[in-house]
Amino acid sequence: QVQLVESGGGLVQPGGSLRLSCVASGSIVTINAMGWYRQAPGKERELVARIIVGGDTNYADSVKGRFTISRDGAKNTVSLQMNSLKPEDTADYYCNAVLVARRNTDRGYYGGEFWGQGTQVTVSS
């Protein structure tokens, strides 16, 4: 039932900006954390940025000062503002959420980590 839907990816020149958004839908009870991960060809998936319910954030060293993560709890959304983009930022970006939800059939609780489908970000001139 839980879905993470991403938007905002695309092609941008070095030094440009993109804003990624992710909306979590379903019978969500609580979201403990939301974040963004990325994976470039031939590389392992890595954490880009994450924000927890209390507002604390965590960024990869490579994006500190350039990327900003924010969350709107009322809308179950998380956004990633990416400025001063570099070719090294080229990757598939995935939305992630740690949450608890309820099944529609029996109203039982379930949870864990959930992932979006991924969105391509290409930084090239």
Task: Explain what this protein looks like in three dimensions.
The chain has 125 residues and is an all-beta fold. It has strands at 3-7, 10-12, 18-25, 28-39, 46-52, 57-59, 67-72, 77-82, 91-102, 109-115, 119-123. The strands form 2 sheets. Strands 2, 4, 5, 6, 9, 10 and 11 form a 7-stranded mixed β-sheet that branches. A 4-stranded antiparallel β-sheet has the order 1-3-8-7, with no helix packed on it. It is elongated, with a radius of gyration of 15 Å.
Q: Any descriptors?
A:
single chain, 125 residues, four-stranded antiparallel sheet, 0% helix
Oligomer: single chain
The overall pLDDT average reads: 95
Helical content (DSSP H or I, runs of 4+): under 10%
Most strands sheet: 7 strands, mixed
- Count of DSSP strands: 11
Q: Distance between termini?
A: 40 Å
**Which secondary-structure class do the elements indicate?**
mainly beta
Helical element count?
0
Low-confidence stretches: none
Radius of gyration: 15 Å
Strand coverage percent: over 45%
Order of helical and strand elements: EEEEEEEEEEE
What would the principal axes of the Cα set say about the shape? elongated
